[in-house]
Design a protein that fits this description.
7 helices
């Protein structure tokens, strides 16, 4: 028996389900879109207006704004399936760990490779890091608990 098979038995889930990977990828992409709007918007705002503010402060605000815009987008998406209060509560109850990991990964890539400056060539790498970082956790939650934000 391979190590992967032993791990699947121990954790009680299979990591080879294409349907779950597809759904968790779609969920992660929606979250990435919401997070990116607030994150990129904040960094760009400080950059364009040349506001003297510490990079750590800008990145912290970018993370907070990314979380907020993600919740807003998720609420709008969910509002098509349920009433506004339920949609908001579902969006707010999503995994902040996953969203936070996404935000930190994106901003870490920006700081390491571009010094915290938003330049066109870094954006794809930020998005890739933001997508790949929470994806296994989102798959796990979907497979183990059937918890999804959509």
């Amino acid at each position: 028996m391979s190590d992967l098979e032993k791990e699947n038995i121990d954790s009680g889930i299979s990591w080879t389900c294409r349907k779950t990977w597809k759904q968790s990828s779609i969920n992660t992409l929606w979250c990435l879109l919401g997070c990116s709007i607030g994150d990129f918007g904040t960094i760009l705002f400080f950059q364009v207006n040349q506001i003297p503010f510490p990079m750590l402060g800008i990145m912290t605000l970018a993370i907070i704004n990314g979380l907020i815009t993600s919740i807003i987008l998720e609420t709008i998406i969910l509002y098509r399936q349920m009433n506004l209060k339920e949609a908001f509560n579902t969006a707010i109850g999503m995994s902040f760990l996953s969203m936070l990991a996404m935000e930190i990964a994106m901003n870490t890539v920006d700081v390491i490779f571009a010094g915290g400056i938003l330049v066109w060539w870094i954006v794809p790498f930020m998005l890739l890091a933001g997508f790949l970082t929470p994806l296994p956790y989102n798959y796990y939650r979907l497979k183990k608990y059937d918890e999804s934000c959509h």
